[in-house]
Design brief:
The structure is a single chain. The chain contains four helices and ten strands; from the N terminus they run H-H-E-E-E-E-E-E-E-E-E-H-H-E. With 225 residues, the chain is an alpha+beta fold. A hairpin with a 4-residue loop joins strand 2 and strand 3. The radius of gyration is 23 Å and the shape is elongated. The two termini are 23 Å apart. About 7% of the residues have low confidence. It holds the Pfam family Cap15_CD_rec.
């Protein structure tokens, strides 16, 4: 929330409180409103901390907050309707009020244009519209395209995501992800490095994923949580 509407809300609250005191016969001096700027600044800082970090504290989940924390790097498998499974990584950037997704394969990367996390039928659903850009050396056979994805989130502390995707190239398929790190990978190589460092997951990833991970990681740029 920006400072202007927050200032209006605090001022309205202070005015209502002052009117209530006056109604009970209390005298309210103008100095009553003197701390207004400090209160607004304090609330602004608290809201920023809440949106970016505080809401993710484990003691708040699953009650009073049911919204799952998906922030981190996820290892997965992309299975086209026609074709062989491919290794893929999903990176979720999440605050209390926003969510963004990126995916990396050995040949391309995608970024969400719009994304939402909503509760549907008792589970949360992560849905996104994305733009995929293949690496330049592959664009002669794989053009830039757009698509949509939805992933079902199971439980308040999810360890896996399942769903499907479809694109404007008339292709579609299934997706399955498992969390490997709370850190945010920046590309396929750094995500693969996180995958190798992660403990074995249950259920374990498909062997086709593990065999496809690059043995060398020339880039290991990883954003800290």
């Amino acid at each position: 929330m920006s400072r202007a509407p927050l200032t209006i809300l605090v001022l309205a609250g202070a005015a209502l409180w002052a009117l209530s005191l006056l109604g009970h016969g209390w005298l309210v001096p103008l100095s009553f409103f003197a701390p207004l700027s400090a209160v607004v600044s304090g609330l602004s800082a608290l809201l920023l901390l809440w949106d970016a970090w505080l809401w993710r504290l484990g003691l708040l989940h699953p009650w009073p907050l049911s919204q799952p924390v998906l922030r981190g790097t996820w290892r997965g498998e992309l299975t086209p309707a026609e074709g062989e499974p491919l290794p893929i990584f999903l990176v979720v950037e999440q605050t209390f009020s926003t969510v963004k997704t990126r995916t990396f394969t050995a040949e391309s990367r995608s970024a969400s244009i719009a994304a939402r996390l909503d509760e549907v039928d008792g589970d949360f659903l992560l849905a996104a519209i994305y733009r995929n850009e293949p690496d330049l050396r592959f664009q002669d056979r794989s053009r830039v395209h757009r698509g949509a994805v939805h992933l079902r989130v199971h439980g308040p502390r999810p360890t896996e995501l399942r769903g499907c995707y479809w694109t404007d190239r008339a292709t579609m398929g299934e997706l399955h992800f498992e969390r490997i790190s709370r850190q945010l990978a920046s590309d396929f190589a750094s995500a693969a490095a996180l995958a190798r460092a992660a403990p074995p997951a249950q259920p374990q990833a498909s062997p086709s994923i593990l065999r496809s991970l690059p043995r060398e990681t020339p880039s290991r740029r990883v954003a800290s949580d």
